[in-house]
Amino acid sequence: MAIGRLTLTDDDGSGTTGTVENAAFFTAVYDAIDTEFATKAASTLAPAVSTVTTTGNITALPLPVGTGDLVIRMNNASLATIQGIAAGLSGQRLWIYSVGAGQVDLPPLHASGTALGKLYNVVTVGASSLAPASGAAQYIYDLTNTRWRMVAHEQGAYITNAWAAGNFTGSGTITWTVDVGDQIIFKYKLFGRTLHIILSLQTTTVSGTGTELRIATPGGYTAVSGARSLISVLDNNVAHTGIVDQPATGYARVNTDTSSATNWAASTNQTQIIGDYRHEVA
Amino acid sequence: MSSYQTFTSARVTEPDGPSLIAQLRAADATVGVQHDPGSSTYVLKKATAWAAGEITAAQTVLDAAPAASAQLAAQAWIDQLPIGQKALLLALLDQINTLRTQPSTTFAAVTPAQGLAAVRAKAGTL
């Protein structure tokens, strides 16, 4: 917006004659100020923005051109894994938004990422993810260590953990069979270093003897501190309040009741676990 | 190979879970039920492919199974009584049966410690 113009009144009141300044001089000054403001608004006050559609592994994500704040809109159609980002200026801020149909993964200090801009995330094992069209992250460039340091992360929507038979095991001689159609819900969301998991496994089958059904930590994260939550179970179609216990390492352990000492009953399509739990990750 | 079949029931009450399973399993002992309370959708899983007649029969069971009730829930709980509570009940029953078989005998009072020990011993047998 141009600055306000003051009309000068000279000695004779005409605005066109005078002995010291005249209107043309002031007009030139005002124009110079307006030009400077316009330049600043374009180059500094508004972030430089670029849109990226690349999928797969990205070892050095190109930055938009600009000396101020930067915004990258990730419009990838399928998974994009940003292993590194091109170097920024010292203290330069970068926002990454997911606006596409594909998930964006931001793995920490990935070996394949450019040495000028690896990602230093809040979690140190496992990627900080941006759910499709809802996640966002903010980084600041650390010129001393040539890293992008994460200062904010919002995963957006919960992310479904892809089914794998090996995610479900048991203690003792238990074989826990969770078919792909039995995994009604198994999704997670990362809050800082807290991983929250929502689970609904139904019509699963248990054989053998043991007190624990075991669930692998989703998302590639590593549990570092124990946590215990109540969870709803059907043990061979008998309803119980069980517990899910996440020890400092390894898988989550689900017990059929709060004693942690009762064996799971053998069942065919009649073992169910529904609930949620959370724990700290590295 | 497990097979899943989705059903919709117009029933307005939640079925009693144990009754529903018992009726479904009378036809096929591998049937399991996926259902969220309040939903009209039921997904049934069993070990073999669903035949048309099995689908019809299962639909009938879903529509007609007894509604969940406090009484049925209590009976299901009694069927699966936790060991501690079962021991308490059965230890008392032992004492009652002793009295029933020897009604004219005078017995010394059972102390609290003896009572608890009897329950504890009973739990060890269950």
Mean pLDDT of chain B: 94
In terms of DSSP E residues, the strand content of chain B is: 5-15%
Mean pLDDT of chain A: 90
Biggest sheet record of chain A: 10 strands, antiparallel
Major sheet summary line of chain B: 3 strands, antiparallel
Q: Tell how many strands the DSSP assignment of chain B holds.
A: 3
Q: Give the ordered list of helices and strands of chain A.
A: HEEEEEEEEEEEEEEEEEEEE
If you compute it from the alpha carbons, what radius of gyration of chain B comes out, rounded to the nearest whole angstrom?
A: 22 Å
| Low-confidence segments of chain B | none
| SSE string of chain B | EHEEHHHH
Structural write-up:
The complex is a heterodimer of chains A (282) and B (126). Chain A is mostly beta strands. In chain A, 8% of the residues lie in helices and 41% in strands. In chain A, strands 11, 12, 13, 14, 15, 16, 17, 18, 19 and 20 form a ten-stranded antiparallel β-sheet that branches. Chain A has a six-stranded mixed β-sheet with strand order 1-3-5-9-10-7, with no helix packed on it. In chain A, strands 2-4-6-8 form a four-stranded mixed β-sheet, with no helix packed on it. The longest helix of chain A has 23 residues. The radius of gyration of chain A is 29 Å and the shape is elongated. Chain B has 126 residues and is mainly alpha-helical. Chain B is built from five helices and three strands, in the order E-H-E-E-H-H-H-H. Chain B has a three-stranded antiparallel β-sheet with strand order 1-3-2, with helices on one face. In chain B, a hairpin with a 6-residue loop joins strand 2 and strand 3. The chains are: A mainly beta (282), B mainly alpha (126). Chains A and B meet through strand 20 of A and helix 1, strand 2 and strand 3 of B.
